[in-house]
UniProtKB/TrEMBL annotation, chain A:
<dbReference type="Pfam" id="PF02738">
    <property type="entry name" value="MoCoBD_1"/>
</dbReference>
<dbReference type="InterPro" id="IPR000674">
    <property type="entry name" value="Ald_Oxase/Xan_DH_a/b"/>
</dbReference>
<dbReference type="InterPro" id="IPR016208">
    <property type="entry name" value="Ald_Oxase/xanthine_DH-like"/>
</dbReference>
<dbReference type="InterPro" id="IPR046867">
    <property type="entry name" value="AldOxase/xan_DH_MoCoBD2"/>
</dbReference>
<dbReference type="GO" id="GO:0016491">
    <property type="term" value="F:oxidoreductase activity"/>
</dbReference>
<dbReference type="Pfam" id="PF20256">
    <property type="entry name" value="MoCoBD_2"/>
</dbReference>
<dbReference type="GO" id="GO:0005506">
    <property type="term" value="F:iron ion binding"/>
</dbReference>
<protein>
    <submittedName>
        <fullName>Xanthine dehydrogenase family protein molybdopterin-binding subunit</fullName>
    </submittedName>
</protein>
<dbReference type="InterPro" id="IPR036856">
    <property type="entry name" value="Ald_Oxase/Xan_DH_a/b_sf"/>
</dbReference>
Automatic annotation (TrEMBL), chain B:
<dbReference type="GO" id="GO:0071949">
    <property type="term" value="F:FAD binding"/>
</dbReference>
<dbReference type="InterPro" id="IPR016169">
    <property type="entry name" value="FAD-bd_PCMH_sub2"/>
</dbReference>
<keyword id="KW-0285">Flavoprotein</keyword>
<keyword id="KW-0560">Oxidoreductase</keyword>
<dbReference type="Pfam" id="PF00941">
    <property type="entry name" value="FAD_binding_5"/>
</dbReference>
<feature type="domain" description="FAD-binding PCMH-type">
    <location>
        <begin position="1"/>
        <end position="177"/>
    </location>
</feature>
<dbReference type="InterPro" id="IPR002346">
    <property type="entry name" value="Mopterin_DH_FAD-bd"/>
</dbReference>
<dbReference type="InterPro" id="IPR036318">
    <property type="entry name" value="FAD-bd_PCMH-like_sf"/>
</dbReference>
<dbReference type="InterPro" id="IPR016167">
    <property type="entry name" value="FAD-bd_PCMH_sub1"/>
</dbReference>
Length: 761, 288
């Protein structure tokens, strides 16, 4: 599409922070040392579910150099109700009488020297009365083992109100959608297919592990924290303390990756309590290994059933999705609902029924992770699509295209789809794979195949962003936003948007990093929302500033369009270099919350995230080992505001999902994580990237997005796993239903298909 | 994480190194390339008061060609073996093996002696040295010692080396010029340790066959060796008989392999044998 040339929009402007980062000067919380600061090291539970009989801290307390050992009893003195969480106030700052997963924090040692604190942790012992535990999400649905005695939803989520005080269940949220009459649909359909697919537990692995510093003094608190959601931290900490928000200051410098992990409250409640108890600044910095006990991605079991006619029209679909939320709900209930409502896939189906459940288990908590549940649901619905096409003998792309949701048609919720380039993305992947050309399928031991998948996601709503554009007296500009620069390039894109309106160079704009005393509210840097939400707020704030410049010019009696430079305007107004022009704006998109019974909404999402993937694989049929020889990801990001940044978002998300597809899995024995270190838990490295790795965006536009743009950070996570699973099937004719796709599983399945099943473990 | 504070010495005689180790009462540890030890210190799985760097000891980084055998100092790196910087007694088996260990960065520093001393069951040199019939030499408080590589490993991460012994070198007999070898290993990921591994050497006067990447020491396969001695060529239909021989050998050694692992080992073995007859094993990701 030809767009008028702009010096900002659509330009691959280098990251504003590039020089700082490559010269090692960028500021991170890990570097921060405050005078008098203590380090906290965490003593963790060794059992998955137990009543705590006693915790013996005497030896730790006696170690020279230990300032204090803290348990929940000490914390209660500072915070009488020490339970937190974004959706449920279910998580104690330290274990409170019970532990609910192996690895849960039970006590903290404070010392001026982190190594002494760590040594003292080794001197703590705890006695437990072990309780039966439940780890599997499907079992937890009906298990007698209860992870929590009572559900405690947070008041901030009106749609969870009905769950308050509920007992006798592990189900933290159930979301339901009904459209048409699925039973009648199945009865009338020519074929009915039903399959179950599972996704495993994985972790974010940010390069910068979790770290927070709290400095509480004189009834004020400053938090320096590696958080994706400083505004939420302030609100939740103020609630815990019973203080007004203005006494809590949250500062976030750069983040070394977040991926959804560093959202809501993580270490912030703990360091706050510790600082209040110790009356000293306190820092807690996790190790890479401890991150496995902080937050992870939901394992998921998804049973999907479709009624399909001979011609390939899908007439009915039911989805039962069970999300393993671990011991504390975190944002799981939101994942359940947001990924729930799109779990029937991007298809135009008349009769749909969805049941999506968040359940507690005795595993480390699960929360948001790049894709917010969409990759788990797409793993199921896109493998299912291939299985149906296979059974009907239809081409996999043609079968999808026939059923794909078109713009202007209602999605399962009833929301009319707009600006979702589903078919374009699918076609572009098919084109890059040369789908209509025959593939060399190999022979003998090495077989080749290819697979394709497409998916979409809704965006968390309703959420608000506020931006301030501050023009200084010399005409230079500061942009005050609480969007967190965590490597995604938000500083650069936000500066581009402001610069476009103000007719400046993006590089000349200073982006002021989140500091809740200075930068205005933003819901959080999450779920592909910043470009659309904050981007719109920034655009409006910059327009507001422009309007004020025009007003000033008018006030000074200048003719319309006089174009006097800004410093000159300020000089004329104030007689010297002085003053500011402040443009502000807030943005909240249109949204209608889903009907509690039917799940219907006329406006279920601010926009659609769209991703399609294709893969070519080679499988060694004698071992099950395989190699992805070509991987294609195509996303709809609207207008690519900065094509280079879009490119690295797409490839980065793709590589991350590649790990979740091929090697990554948190493995447990009796509730104990057995591979909680990067020596055993394998993530992709550069050498694991397929030789042909294509990441592209389609030519599209999000009409209500800032300069046509929308989010790009998650799109390529959605369809990648099923594309590979489908390619493996195409190559060797075996269908794996459980992620990750390991050579052992393939080999086992091949043996079974050959009629020579292996004995089992 | 970073390791706990630790003292570091780099002695210049073997006697001094052994002395430092025995004085410490177990609180000192030998450091060679550091590719396995340093990560363990960083993760704090291991903690010592002192590291005794052996890379400066006389002779530990040198190699000598003694005609019927080659002696490699313990601190010869994988990289030097890979590039032919040291004499190769193995008709190319050792350079080929070295080139498939981990990543280049690990090969640049990791040493053959460190690999053997650590005795990770999946390490490449354990099975390779056993298959080549090498001898391992060390010096300890009681003086020098040595044993065949085949008898060096007692269990996973446990060798004949005593706490204060320094592995000094490896003597590797020269393969017959007509010897033919094949080796195959399965790794899930680039640079990862193998999940299964086999080596087959056919030569006049005795074939050798070993499985590596087991739960413990490499497994010698005598029945397979007998079968190899009688083979005149490789045919895919021989695989079943080979598999049976392997299974019998594993059982006779008092060892067991889980089902997938047994099949993977069998496939590795068949490919290693086929390779010794000149059949290139299938490799993923090359053809396209
Ligand atoms: C990412 C990664 C992947 C790897 N993949 C493979 C692989 O695929 N195959 C493979 O074989 N190896 C692999 N390795 C291991 C690598 O080969 C190591 O270099 C080797 O195992 C240890 O050698 P080093 O010289 O680094 O020993 P160090 O790490 O210095 O020492 C290892 C141990 O041996 C002891 N030690 C070392 N030298 C002596 C000596 N002369 N006398 C007595 N004790 C000694 C040390 O005290 C220590 O306990 C991998 C390593 C990494 C980091």
């Amino acid at each position: 599409m030809a767009r008028t040339a702009s010096r900002n929009i659509g330009q691959s402007i280098p990251r504003l922070e590039a020089r700082e980062k490559v010269t090692g000067r960028a500021e991170y919380v890990h570097h921060l040392r405050l005078p008098g600061m203590l380090y906290g090291k965490i003593f963790r539970s060794t059992v998955p579910h137990a009543r705590i009989k006693s915790v013996d801290v005497s030896a730790a307390q006696a170690l020279e150099g230990v300032y204090r050992v803290v348990t929940i009893d000490d914390i209660r003195e500072a915070i009488p109700h020490p339970y937190y969480g974004p959706a449920f106030h279910d998580q104690p700052i330290l274990a409170d009488g019970k532990v609910r997963f192996a690895g849960e924090p039970v006590a903290v040692v404070l010392a001026a020297d982190p190594h002494i604190a760590q040594e003292a942790v080794g001197l703590i012992s705890a006695e437990y009365e072990e309780l039966p535990a439940v780890f599997d999400e499907v079992e937890a649905m009906s298990s007698d083992v209860l992870v929590h005695d009572v559900l405690k939803p947070a008041a901030t989520f009106p749609d969870l109100k009905h769950l308050a005080g509920r007992t006798g269940t592990n189900v933290a949220l159930d979301y339901h959608l009904l459209r048409g009459d699925p039973e009648a649909g199945f009865a009338a359909a020519d074929h009915v297919f039903e399959h179950t697919y599972r996704s495993q537990q994985v972790m974010h692995i940010p390069m910068e592990p979790f770290v927070s510093v709290a400095d509480a003094a004189d009834g004020r608190l400053t938090l320096h924290t590696a958080s994706q959601s400083p505004s939420f931290v302030r609100i939740e900490i103020a609630r815990l303390l019973g203080w007004p928000e203005n006494r809590v200051r949250v500062k976030v410098p750069y983040l070394g990756g977040g991926f959804g992990g560093k959202l809501y409250i993580k270490l912030e409640a703990l360091v706050t309590a510790l600082s209040l108890v110790a009356r000293r600044p306190v820092k807690v910095a996790l190790t890479m290994e401890e991150q496995f006990f902080m937050v992870t991605r939901h394992p998921c079991t998804f049973t999907i059933k479709s009624g399909v006619n001979k011609d390939g029209t899908i007439v009915a679909r039911t989805c039962k999705v069970v999300w393993n939320g671990g011991a504390y709900a975190d944002i799981g209930p939101r994942v359940t609902q947001k990924a729930g409502f799109t779990s029937a896939g991007p298809y135009d189906i008349e009769n749909v029924e969805i049941h999506s459940y968040a359940v507690y288990t005795n595993r480390p908590p699960c929360g948001a992770l790049r894709g917010f549940g969409a990759p788990q649901t797409a793993w199921a619905y896109e493998c299912h699509m291939d299985e149906i096409a296979e059974a009907l003998g239809m081409d996999k792309v043609a079968f999808r295209r026939k059923n794909l949701l078109q713009n202007g048609r209602p999605q399962a919720t009833g929301t009319i789809v707009q600006d979702a380039a589903l078919e374009q993305a699918l076609d572009q992947v098919a084109d890059r794979l040369n789908w209509n050309e025959p593939l060399d399928r190999g022979d003998g031991r090495i077989r080749r195949g290819r697979g394709i998948a497409v998916g979409f996601k809704g965006i968390t709503a309703p959420t608000t962003s506020v931006a301030i554009v501050n023009l200084y007296a010399d005409g230079s500009c500061g942009l005050y936003i609480s969007t967190v620069e965590m490597g995604q390039g938000s500083d650069t894109v936000m500066a581009q948007i402001a610069a476009e309106v103000l007719d400046m160079d993006a590089a000349a704009i200073k982006v002021v990093h989140p500091d809740t005393d200075v930068t205005p509210y933003d819901m959080g840097t999450l779920g592909s929302r910043s470009t659309f939400h904050m981007g719109t707020a920034v655009r409006l704030a910059a327009e507001d500033a422009r309007k004020k410049i025009a007003e000033l010019a008018r006030e000074l009696g200048l003719p319309e369009g006089s174009n006097l430079p800004l410093p000159e305007l300020f000089r004329r107004k104030y007689g010297m270099q002085a003053g500011n022009i402040i443009g502000t704006a807030s943005f909240i998109p249109k949204y209608e919350k889903p009907d509690a019974e039917t799940g219907h909404s006329r406006n279920a999402t601010p926009f659609w995230g769209v991703g399609a993937s294709g893969a070519e694989v080679e499988v060694d049929t004698e071992t099950g080992h395989y190699r992805i020889t070509k991987l294609v990801n195509v996303a709809d990001v609207g207008t690519a505001l900065n094509p280079k940044l879009v490119q690295v978002q797409l490839s980065g998300a793709g590589i991350m999902q590649l790990g979740f597809t091929t090697t990554e899995e948190m493995v447990y024995r009796d509730g104990q994580l057995t591979n909680g270190s990067l020596a055993d838990y394998k993530i992709p490295t550069l050498l694991d990237i397929p030789p042909e790795f294509i990441n592209e965006h389609v030519d599209s536009e999000q009409k209500d997005g800032p300069f046509g743009g929308k989010g790009a950070g998650e799109s390529t996570t959605i369809a990648l796993s099923p594309a590979i699973g489908n390619a493996l099937f195409d190559a060797v004719g075996v269908r794996l239903t459980d992620l990750p796709l390991t050579p052992e599983k393939i080999f086992r399945a091949l043996c079974e298909a050959n009629g020579t099943p292996l004995a089992g473990e | 994480m970073k390791p706990a504070p630790i003292a570091y010495v780099r002695p210049d005689t073997v006697e001094r190194a052994v002395g430092l180790l025995s004085e410490s009462g177990g609180e000192a540890k030998v450091l060679a390339g550091g590719q396995s030890l340093v990560p363990m210190l960083n993760l704090r799985i291991a903690a010592f008061e002192r590291l005794v760097d052996v890379t400066g000891l006389p002779g530990l980084r040198s190699a000598s060609d003694e005609g019927s055998e080659v002696r490699l100092g313990a601190c010869v790196t994988h990289e030097r073996i890979q590039t032919g910087d040291v004499p190769d007694p193995s008709n190319g088996l050792m350079p080929s093996t070295a080139s498939r260990i981990a990543y280049q960065a690990v090969r640049n520093r990791g040493t053959i002696g460190g690999s053997l001393a650590l005795a990770d069951p999946a390490a490449d040199w354990l099975a390779t040295m056993a298959a080549l019939g090498a001898a391992i030499e060390w010096v300890g408080p009681d003086g020098p010692g040595s044993c065949p590589a085949e008898a060096f490993v007692e269990a996973a991460y446990t060798t004949r080396l005593g706490l204060y012994d320094v592995l000094t070198g490896i003597r590797i007999p020269r393969l017959h010029p007509d010897a033919r070898w094949g080796t195959y290993k399965l790794c899930r990921k680039t640079g990862e340790f193998a999940h299964a591994m086999a080596i087959a050497i056919r030569q006049p006067g005795g074939c050798r066959a070993f499985l590596g990447a087991t739960e413990g020491a490499p497994i010698r396969l005598p029945a397979v060796e007998d079968m190899l001695a009688g083979l005149r060529g490789w045919d895919a239909s021989d695989a079943a008989r080979l598999g049976e021989a392997m299974a019998a050998d594993v059982a006779a050694a008092g060892r067991s392999l889980s089902d997938v692992h047994a099949w993977q080992s069998r496939t590795c073995l068949a490919r290693a044998v086929a390779m010794s007859f000149g059949a290139a094993p299938p490799r993923l990701g090359r053809a396209a």
